[in-house]
Amino acid sequence: MAADAVEEIRGTAQGTAPVPLSVLDLVTVGAGRTATDALRTSVDIARLAENRGFHRYWVAEHHSMPGVASSSPAVILAHLAAHTDRIRLGSGGVMLPNHAPLVIAEQFGTLEAMAPGRVDLGLGRAPGTDGATAAALRRTDRLNEGADDFPEQLAELIRFLDDDFPDGHPYGRIHAVPGPVQATSPGGVQSAHRPPVWLLGSSGFSARLAGTLGLPFAFAHHFSAQNTVPALDLYRESFRPSAVLDAPYTLIGVSALATDDEKEARRQVLAAALNMVRLRTGRPGLVPTPEEAEAYDFSPMELEFVRSWNANVIHGTADEVRTGLDDLQKRTGADELMITANAHSGDVRLRSYELIGDAYGLPAV
């Protein structure tokens, strides 16, 4: 693989950070705020991340959740591409079973044309929502079929991205545009580059598949912490060198929130945890304010969930968060940390990335 393409995947640590740092954005919407407010915050965070040397900025696909406005990653990424110049932009991820592979190839080919050389295509096999919404997205109630067919869907998508279906294939005369076919058209000029494909997971399935195919692997530590080390070990054990990578490369999503004092961090993560309580009990809504969370009467079962959930959220002052991130990286051996800051207020989220950047001495452009 070309050195510049490898660099797109591997990145370079900045400041005193042990590995490259990146951002995962759920485009969270707080009570009293609008999706427009949330998207404006996303632009502000993306600009900050670019100026402070974060390596990439990914947007996750979710559906039917009032507090998460990231149902259309490709649309959001196009918006962010118009407001940034250097930072890598990508999906963390697009849920492949929800979409036809050709559609994804077209969308990300378009993004690549908008932001050449800085687009990532991260793919997951979960629906990113509840079963009923997944059925509406896929227009079928045979949801397991989509997950079971994931390797075949992935192979088809990569064929569309590379425009290299074999002779006689039913899709051999179909081309994802923008894409490589434009270079072979009369008078055509088209970059041979295409977005690197990542596999995302929260269990062992995608870990093993990513390793077998020699693709980079991103693990959702922020909501499946107990599976992180086993999944990363499985990926490394399964890894086979490919044209994409000659050695494994792992990224983990980490929930982390830094504030100017420890008490405020506890208030903010309590509100985010209440949001998760409501989501897990079938009552999804906007992210509550810290004041609402402090006044909420948690049941014993809910309190136990909050304790368990927040045990995996690195929060506190900037120094405390830096220590937590360093310890997590050492424990997992992750090659990159992708930080998601969940809070009611966009200003709090933005401040968290500023503080983390300062704690690691990241450059300020």
Protein model, in words:
It is a single chain. The protein is α/β, with parallel strands linked by helices. The chain has 15 helices and 9 strands. The chain has an 8-stranded parallel beta barrel, surrounded by 8 helices. Helix 3 (about 75-80) runs parallel beside helix 4, helix 4 (about 100-115) packs across helix 7 and helix 11 crosses helix 13. The radius of gyration is 20 Å and the shape is globular. The model has no long low-confidence stretch (mean pLDDT about 90).
Query: Can you summarize the main beta sheet?
Result: 8 strands, parallel, barrel
Mean pLDDT rating: 92
Q: Total number of β-strand segments?
A: 9
Q: How many helical stretches? A: 15
Q: Write the element-wise H/E pattern from the N-terminal end onward.
A: HEHEHEHEHHHHEHEHEHHHEHEH
Query: Which secondary-structure class do the elements indicate?
Result: alpha/beta
The proportion of residues forming helix, as a percent range, comes to 40-55%
Strand content: 5-15%
Give the end-to-end Cα distance, rounded to a whole number of Å. 31 Å
Unreliable runs: none
Q: Sum up the overall morphology in one term.
A: globular
Strand order of the largest sheet: 1-2-3-4-5-6-7-9
Radius of gyration, CA atoms, in whole angstroms: 20 Å
